[in-house]
Structures are given as C-alpha cells and as structure tokens.
Amino acid sequence: MRVLVAMSGGVDSSVTAGLLHEAGHEVIGVTLQLYNHGAAVGRKGACCAGQDIHDARRVADRLGISHYVIDAEERFAAAVIADFADSYAAGETPVPCIRCNQSVKFADLTALASDLGAERLATGHYVRRVDGPDGAELHRAADTDRDQSWFLFATTRAQLERCWFPLGEMPDKRAVRDQAVRLGLAVAEKPDSQDICFVPSGSYAEIVGRLRPDALEPGDIVTRDGAVVGRHDGVARFTVGQSKRLGSAAMDGGERRMVVATEPGTRRVIVGPRSVATGVVRLREVNWLVSPGAGPVRCTVKLRARDVPRSAVVEVRDDGAMVRLDEAALPAPGQACVFYDGDRVLGGGFITRPET
C-alpha cells in the first residue's frame, strides 16, 4: 500500500520508513520543518530542523524513496510554541509534545496522507495500534520503558484508524538501532531527541519570557494561609511539585516545602508541605478512544508521562471529566491525565487549575 511516513531525521522514524519500504510498500517520506532557532538547529537532541532534515533526506536517498520537506514553522509556532508560553503564563505546566502530536503531526499529516492517496500514516512512536471489535485501539508499546502512549491520548479515533506504528512491538531501543545498522542507515547511533525540541539553550524560560514577559515578573512566595515567606523571579519558573528555586522558603522548620499552586494574576507562588494532596482531578479537552457510556469508568490513570498507574474512577462531565483517585496525589495543571484499561488507552484530558 502507499504509506506516508513522518521522518524527523532520527533513528526511529528512519527505521520505520526502512522496514515499510523493505516490506514492499510505496513509502513517501515527509519531514516537517518546525522551527529554526539558530542554536537549536545544530544542538544534539533537537528534531525537525537543520541537520535533522539533512539526515532524513540522506535516509530517503539510501532507501530510494520519495522525500518532501514541508514548511510548518508558522503552524508550529501558533499551535505549539505560543500555547507553551501561554500555558506557563496561566500557571500551568504544558506538554508541548502532546500539542505537537495533536495538531501538526497527526491532524495535518493525516490530511496530507489523504491528499496524496496514502492509505496509512506511519510514525516512529513506541505504541501499538490493535484492530479491535469496534475499530482501531491504542495500546502501550511492548517496550514499557519507551512507551509513548501517554503522549498520544489526544489522537482521535478517525486518525487512529489510518495510523501505523511499526516500532510498537520492538523489544527495546537496541533492537531498533540494530535494524538501522542492517538497513545501512547512517543515523543508527544518532542520539535521541529531547522532549522540548524547540528550546535553543535548554532553558524554557527564555521562550516564555520572549512571548509572555509578564510571566517572568517577580512576586511573593506565600504559604497556603497567605504568609509571605520569600520572593521569586516569575511564576513561569515554577510548577506544582517543585521544591527547587525556593530559597529560604524551601524549609518550614525541619520540613521541606514544595510548590502546591501558582497564582499568575497575583504573581504568587504558593508553597506547602509534601503531604498536601488531592483525590479529585478535573479535566478539560477530554478525548475518548472508546465510548465511555453514561456511568463512571473504573480504570487506571497516569498523571505524568513517567507516573505509575493509579487506580481511579472517571466520571464524564459536560465540560470534560472528573477523576476520583483511590489514593490522593498532587497533579500539575496543564499536564495530561490518561486513562488505561490494562495496556489499552481509553482516553484522557488536560488537568485544570483548581479553584484558589
């Protein structure tokens, strides 16, 4: 069949293209140029810019497949980078990889695949697409250490029907690199990309400060009862659960404090003991990959990418969903809460800020 392969220039997407070409499919490689930030272009661990585009083209030449570069800088800047800065300015901790997958990669590339007459869109993500009785299902990868299902919860059911993830059954990353060596791909030992690929210096505050300077204005560090215990240099530099950068406010006698909330409007960072937690999490922008029905859904959830699965009940609401955790936790607004039934992804949503 004709398959459009998203090629970032890394080993994962390169092996994906190589395996599908080797299997006899007509592979069309597409690389999205997402940004061009000077220092980030040549930095190890970047993706979709500079050297990475060159690497993707070299792989395509080696395989003898078509390869196209799509200028998506404007789209990426609006859908991902601006959202990233706005989220921090709103007192949230965004996940730009989810936004990128949700908008630029899966929404735009499935549309492009359709325009090019391609039956499938293939990527190098470590997840499994399983054909179930009610259609395509999203499952965790065989390599649980590499599993990326948390980052793909926002993929729609229609998009999932067209997706293909050839690396989902790979036992580990070494096996993928061995395939790259066997296929003669020059990127076999290329370092993995970083989560925030578009940050030139590794400091996200520079991006936030350029787009939303108000988020880096100084303010007070306060306890939950309003007592001022320190000063900070911008609410965007803090996230729920953080204990660094608090200075003298980090300790309350012999007990260490952590950030339990931020108030962008008043420029306050609120700290409290590690024992502070909640059993109720509210979600917005909920995407279901199954039909949830009318009643509560008993499942496990992950509140962060590397979080352990937590037992919970998800209740569908008109404005999203409410998650009731069996054991209290400290979720960070802006992060994703993803629902699982065993290895299968049921859906998920973005964690909202609690009422102050």
Protein described:
The structure is a single chain. By secondary structure, the chain is an alpha/beta fold. It has 8 helices and 18 strands. It has helices spanning 11-22, 39-42, 51-63, 73-89, 96-115, 157-162, 173-182, 204-211; strands at residues 2-6, 26-33, 66-71, 120-122, 127-132, 135-140, 163-164, 219-223, 228-232, 251-252, 255-263, 268-273, 278-288, 297-302, 310-317, 320-329, 336-341, 344-351. The strands form 4 sheets. Strands 13-16-15-14-17-18 form a 6-stranded antiparallel beta barrel. Helix 1 (11-22) packs across helix 7 (173-182), helix 4 runs antiparallel to helix 5 (96-115) and helix 4 (73-89) packs across helix 8 (204-211). The longest helix has 20 residues, at 96-115. It is globular and about 65 Å long. The mean pLDDT is 92.
Short description:
About 25% of the residues lie in helices and about 30% in strands.
Strand order of the largest sheet: 13-16-15-14-17-18
What is the count of β-strands? 18
The major pleated sheet works out as: 6 strands, antiparallel, barrel
- What percent of the residues sit in helical stretches (DSSP H or I)? 25-40%
**Individual helix count:** 8
CA radius of gyration: 21 Å
On the 0 to 100 scale, the average pLDDT is: 92
Outline the secondary-structure elements.
Blueprint: E1 2-6, H1 11-22, E2 26-33, H2 39-42, H3 51-63, E3 66-71, H4 73-89, H5 96-115, E4 120-122, E5 127-132, E6 135-140, H6 157-162, E7 163-164, H7 173-182, H8 204-211, E8 219-223, E9 228-232, E10 251-252, E11 255-263, E12 268-273, E13 278-288, E14 297-302, E15 310-317, E16 320-329, E17 336-341, E18 344-351
Parallel strand pairs: 1-2, 1-4, 2-3, 4-7, 8-12
Antiparallel strand pairs: 5-6, 8-9, 10-11, 11-12, 13-16, 13-18, 14-15, 14-17, 15-16, 17-18
Helix pairs in contact: 1-3, 1-7, 4-5, 4-8
